[in-house]
Amino acid sequence: PESFSWEEYLKETSSTPAPASCFRQSRIPPSNDFKAGMKLEARDPRNSTSVCIATVMGMTGIRLRLRLDGSDNTNDFWRLVDSADIQPIGTCEKNGDMLQPPLGTEQFPVEPPRPPQNGFKPGMKLEAVDKKNPYLICPATIGEVKGDEVFVMFDGWRGAFDYWCRYDSRDVFPVGWCAVTKHSLQPPGNSTLPHVTAGQITLTNRF
Q1: Nearest-angstrom CA–CA distance, 18 and 194
Q2: H/E run at residue 114
Q3: β pairing state of 16-17 and 124-129
Q4: Sign, CA torsion 23/104/45/57
Q5: Following CA atoms 47, 63, 166, 2 in sequence, which dihedral angle do they give, to the nearest 10 degrees?
Q6: What does pTM read for this prediction?
Q7: Residue of 122, 130, 119 lying closest to 204 (CA atoms)
Q8: Which listed site, 53, 116, 120, 178, has its alpha carbon 20 to 30 Å from 74?
Q9: CB of 63 within 8 A of CB of 77?
Q10: First to last CA, the chain
Q11: Which of 66-75, 93-102, 133-142, 193-202 has the highest mean pLDDT?
């Protein structure tokens, strides 16, 4: 990952990064004051109406790997430290007797506001969470924009990992975000070079 340079890659692919104003991410990333083993309350990713006790299992940059208590590692999930999906123990007025060590509120930065509108345009570059391997963040391109939705295409992977998401998703980041937050950035897949073979309709290699 260290060998990947956004500056060179943008030149090589004649691309433009999406401006920071497009993203629902803090301009100055919050600090990560969590430690492995800490307990918190988290929205269950499989049932958004349910809030459960979770444990911080690991961290990378300002992302936390969380495990709902009583679950196993097959259901671990990732959240940013400023996600509205996590909150201090006691927020739901649960009995906190056995939930040690409880977290104070200072560990929980406020979630950034939603951008007022969808400012993405096809061809813009960004960094995005790979939903199939959510511990990874990779270089990506906006392939299409429809209303509040954007189509995120992972550079060099021929469509295997692409997905639609809302423009204000917390899983997309401006170019350079991984470097600033000390999160590793996966290099593009091996079919990245900007050439399109005759009759090819996939957008993956266009930018």
Answers
A1: 18
A2: none
A3: parallel
A4: positive
A5: -140
A6: 0.73
A7: 122
A8: 178
A9: no
A10: 21
A11: 133-142
